[in-house]
């Protein structure tokens, strides 16, 4: 289809048009400062001249009439967006080849058409012209070559300038502008339409408040001059401590205030404001700007990726309550109905949080469950918020699709990283464009999952999946390969920075540190427990098995390594777990996975003949032995405190429950099998100070996310998960707002075994977990190499702590110790062990180096300054400990 003019012409000269500007990272402090300054003395947002070209073609008074042409150019911009990304990747590759020695490569933005003798000629499209010496390449905005040639006269190509027209490779071109080599290599010249940012709070230029009606819409319609009291802010923006949302810039008004209604300040209800922490205020402004489309033209999504416990729920409630009652233009509320989708175990918690912060009078929220059908929500005008679990959403999808929701909030939304699951498809099918993902553990695995989350909140912002892969994922991943060339590294870095900056505009992540000062101290201990005699024997036999030998030879069909890893992990928890599964397999399978690798016989023989897994002995497992002692000590030293005991396995929880029974400890339990309807009740029961429960048994994988278990002040992680996020999630259940006691976290690991290896892998991966907004960090390994398996399947019987051995810790404060510590991250601490003889490995991940800064000592150390650990050290070979918030009030 021919166009009457190339898009660039519709928008004015490309040369004068601002290039795509990636959003800068929002500096927390900056934003905070702005918020504090924001008060009623007013922040009328000035439109920067380079931010929105369309706007500046319009005189002020014409703003309200210009929506159509804006929409047209925006559409064409979106069209280009998707394909443009692919182009940049190709371009960067070809750049090298095209550069002719002695000649600087030049880049131009051009419009082109076929050479023709017609009278009324039309430009056919925009393109990028690359000129190098006597050669040129013409690329369309999808990065495809649409013309190439060589042997041109140097003077013809070299003298090309803005505004010039020439014929090249059978095409007539007009040079619209010059592109910098940086814009070209980063791919930005192909992205001119992607996510053009609006002003952010941190970029606001302030000027004294002027009546928006007069300054923007000068027409004299009654509506415009109406000074109706309805147009007054709902809450006094001039009151002390008032919390006023940022005002929109002109481009926003032009896009969304078609009727030229007066601008009304949006002021957060003072009833909420005095509860809000500074980071929560900042988060509310962020969410507000995102869903109002004030951060990126035509984009209304946000990801609030604050670490756990920072009060994402309260931030959302504040947003909902504000938008439900107020709006910028004529004060008209921005939303009518909100849909909150959350894991089943948190549905009631959400309702309670609404009640906690807003009381039951202000807002009516509806939760869908067995007794409350969605029809009741549909039929009643009273409710403005619907809270539903992901599972129930699928069941009620047809009805939900028929309701018009203006705001969609997906709690624990990292599950949407998987595009092929039904939940994602269902949510994508809802037409609501203001979408918010809440997650404490955002990008856990890979860049494609990251893409999926972004795509959900702001569809199309990163182009199609294939273009995203080519422009970002592939260069970033290649740059992290050990074999990467300098150029690949540079390109990968550049792309990662670009991606971080681009997405940084609508992703906000704050770490726990912002809330630390409101929390009691946290004492975190990694406790290495010596394995029991039976465990050692079985461990050796397992490593000697045919299955392990296969793995080490690289024979990984039918995944024998996963079977071996599973068996080793069970063994570490308790030999009776392995025994049970060996017996079960023996009884009921003809095609037995263990049998296949000659597992069962060898292992079963190692157990005593009369071994009974039901009457298991606590001393058969090193960790269980330590655990029982620890529980007894806590009971004795802090009789009023409670313990959350976490495992990822139901069978292990059974063992732990049995131990509680044996010792007479009352406990409650929440795992994957706990009916959703009962979960909150169980949690509330435990948190209540009247509860007689001493222990809360929790399966972190099944239902840990989002739970508040502040009734407990000791949390014990009985086993370790490959994914650090699972364990971090669990740990955050107790150390959160509302906790009154110092919190003790214990992570139990069996010394010298696979658990230590998983821990090491976890902490190196943890460096990545902040990777949502910092993609430049090291890569992770997804599959096991034979080398890694070899390491996993090595049993270090003689070590007190393999993890410590790896740290090359120069103990007893040798002078060179500090110099070795990486960038002096933390204060230096003595190691109380003797020096060992490994050579320092400067390549070890930062997180390992940070671990080295933790206090650490062997179990034999005479003076462990911790009353709990002091009393359990008999079976403990080593301890790492870190205290956060030491001085904070409790
Ligand atoms: N400003 C505040 N003052 C006091 N308590 C607060 C405040 N903000 C939040 N809380 C409380 O802190 C606890 C944690 O909040 P919330 O459950 O919203 O955390 P979250 O960010 O959603 O964490 P997670 O990622 O674990 O779900 C809740 O009990 C909440 O009521
Ligand atoms: Mg939450």
From TrEMBL:
Helicase ATP-binding domain boundaries: 293-460
Acyltransferase among keywords: no
SMART domains: DEXDc (SM00487), HELICc (SM00490)
GO CC terms of this entry: nucleoplasm
Key words, A-Z: ATP-binding, DNA damage, DNA repair, DNA-binding, Helicase, Hydrolase, Nucleotide-binding, Nucleus
PROSITE patterns found in the cross-reference section: HELICASE_ATP_BIND_1, HELICASE_CTER
An example Gene Ontology biological process: double-strand break repair via homologous recombination
Annotated spans, Disordered: 1-33
UniProt keyword rRNA-binding present: no
Subcellular location: Nucleus
Domain Helicase C-terminal: 626-790
Compositionally biased spans, kind Polar residues: 1-12
Function comment: Involved in DNA repair and mitotic recombination. May play an active role in recombination processes in concert with other members of the RAD52 epistasis group.
Single GO term (MF): DNA binding
Source lineage: Eukaryota, Metazoa, Chordata, Craniata, Vertebrata
CDD domains in the record: DEXHc_RAD54B, SF2_C_SNF
Family: Belongs to the SNF2/RAD54 helicase family.
Provenance organism: Vombatus ursinus (Common wombat)
Protein name: DNA repair and recombination protein RAD54B
InterPro entries: Helicase_ATP-bd, Helicase_C-like, P-loop_NTPase, SNF2-like_sf, SNF2/RAD54-like_C, SNF2_N, SNF2_RAD54_helicase_repair
Pfam family, one: Helicase_C
